[in-house]
Each structure stands twice: as C-alpha cells, then as structure tokens.
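Thread: Newbie trying to understand structure tokens

Hi all, I'm a second-year student working on a class project, and my supervisor (Dr. K.) asked me to get a predicted structure for one chain before our next meeting. I've only ever worked with sequences, so writing a 3D structure as a token string is new to me. If someone could post the tokens and maybe explain what I'm looking at, I'd be very grateful. Here's the chain:
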Amino acid sequence: MDLANVLHMNPAKSACSYANSSILQKHLMLQSREVLEDTIKNYGTHGFPECFKLADLGCSSGPNSFLFITTIVDIVHAVCQKKNSKTPDEFQVFLNDLPNNDFNALFKMTPSFSSVLENEKGLEKIVNCFISGVAGSFYTRLFPSKSLHFVHSSTSVHWLSQVPANLLDYNKGNIYMAKSSPRCVYEAYFSQFEKDFTTFLRMRSEEVIPNGRMVLSLVGRSSADHTMKDSCYMYGLLGKSLLDMSAEGILHEEDITSFNLPFYATCTEELEAIIGSEGSFSLDRFETSEVNWDIREEDEIMESGESSGKFIAKTIRAITESMLASHFGDTFIDEIFERCALLVAEHLSRVKTDNLFNIVVSLIKK
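---
Reply by user tm_fold:
Sure, no problem. This is what the structure looks like when written as tokens:
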C-alpha cells in the first residue's frame, strides 16, 4: 500500500466526509487546550516575534483545521494582554497533510474563517493571519531550517509511514494488533513506530528554532500491555466485519490476511523513551485523558444503541475508507460499514460505554 498516495481522510464531497464525521477528533483536540495554553504562555515569557510562525501537521480538512488556529490566536492575545506586552503583528500558519488531502475544501473555508477572526473574536486589532497549505509526509522535511516557532499535531502522529513489514504470515484474521496476534506482530508495529517517530522528531528538530515548542496529541493506550482494549478494540470490530463477509463468500480471505492498518497506539513509557533517545527535544509535559467513542456535540441527543453504532461507524469510515477502498475496491464499502455499525451497537449494548485513550505531550527544542 503506497500510503503517501492512499491515506487521506474522506473529502468534503464523499458520502461520509471527515469534515462532518470528526466530532471525536474535535474533542480530543479540545482536551489538549490546557497544555497548549501553558506551552504558549511559557514560550511568550520573553515576548513573541513580530511574525509568529506555526505549523499544524496532519491538518486534514474541515472545521477542526481552523479550530487549532483560532485557539492559538486566542491564547497568544490573552497572554500578551495579561503581560501587557506586544502581540505579534502577523501569524503565518502552515497547514500540512499528505498530497491527496482535500486542500480545496480547506481553502474554500479560509475566507469565512478570516471573517470570524476579524469580526467575532473581539480582539483589539485585526489579526493578520496568513494561511498556506503544505502537501507532504511529516516523516520528511517540510520547512526551511529553523523557520518555525511552534508545531502542533492532533490525532495524526499515530499513523505510520507504512504498514509494518512481514505481517502477512503472522497476523491472520486481524487487521491490527489483537489479543490473538503473536508477540512478533506487536514487535513489528512498535519497531515501525519507533523508526517513524524518531524520524518525525529529527525532521522537526531541523525546522524548529531553538527554544521553539511542539505540542502533539495522539491516540495511545493506557498500559504497556499492547492488547489493552482501549488501543485496538474499535478497529477489531472493523476487522470482524471483514471476516464475517469473508465467511459468507463476499470477500476473499487472502485479501483480509494481506490488509493491516498503518496505525500504532503507543503508551507513555514508549513515547518518553523515544523522545529521550532521539535527544533533540526536552520533555516539558505529559497529559493523558479518555474520550467516549460516542461523544457528540452538546445539543445532540443519543437516540439508541443503533444510532450510536451508525455514528461511530461513520467516524471510523471517514478515517479508513481510502485504505479499504484501495485494497478491497469501492463495491463493498457501504456493506462493510453497515456491518461495522451493527457490531459496534452490539458491543455497546454489553459494555454501555467505551473510550479512546489520548496522550498529549509538550516538547521544547534544545
């Protein structure tokens, strides 16, 4: 699977777009606000540059992309107001994702976002915010040397640069790490994550100025035990949908055997060890939290278990459809997620609630 050309969240015109199916990701981002505030506050202790340059890596498209920018602008202005110091004259924001990201939909939202900044935030002066798109993998260099003051990434760095090698003969019946997976599968996934995250840190170390900051939020697991339910169960239900279709002769078993998700839910101990080993950033802060799979907007009412199943299946579909369609073809996508919705509803009828584990880390460039 050529991930750089396959992996992308569903575009705006798709039946289940990421923009309309990313409430979970929005709440994961909101949970990092306290860390963002403290990080920006500490960075601005001695004042901000005239042009504050920041990047959002793995931005996708939709309102969440602009939630990050709004949050940073709000925090910077609040810090400057409290310290009675000069606010930046300009914000330069780089929105990064892989080339097949729906950048067109993102840029179409830019004028309305600029209007919000100018008319609704109640700031003392017009915010000069210049927004650019940067297409490319964040496992490569994306920006000039020492050009960024701040880097942010939310629900992205847990995606790997490639599916771990040599899984074909060992992870039969699974599309990710599972309790039935042998230890060599976990070791292959961790090895790929360790390599990728080390590369990520090394690339950013060249792009971020000394004493620059980075805040990363990623889906992880609450224990060193890689079979913990909070790290793999959601995708296990997706895998079961595929296996049920194989048992009925709709999908070929060998196609399922050869499909594995390029995703790794790390734990805090692994993350801290890689940061220390790579050595370019000092660890400023770790925070963890949990978010319900079925979290909704405040005014939205959960009607039933069936409704929850459909809602969560849409969230999974918005993330994984591009990979599934590339591997299995478009024909079966609707049925895969209809079955997934039923399995999720059945699962929630037994456990009532289930959570994702979120890790937020704040780093300082040495």
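A couple of things are worth pointing out once you decode it. The first helix runs from residue 3 to 6. The chain has a mean pLDDT of 85. Feel free to ask follow-ups in this thread.
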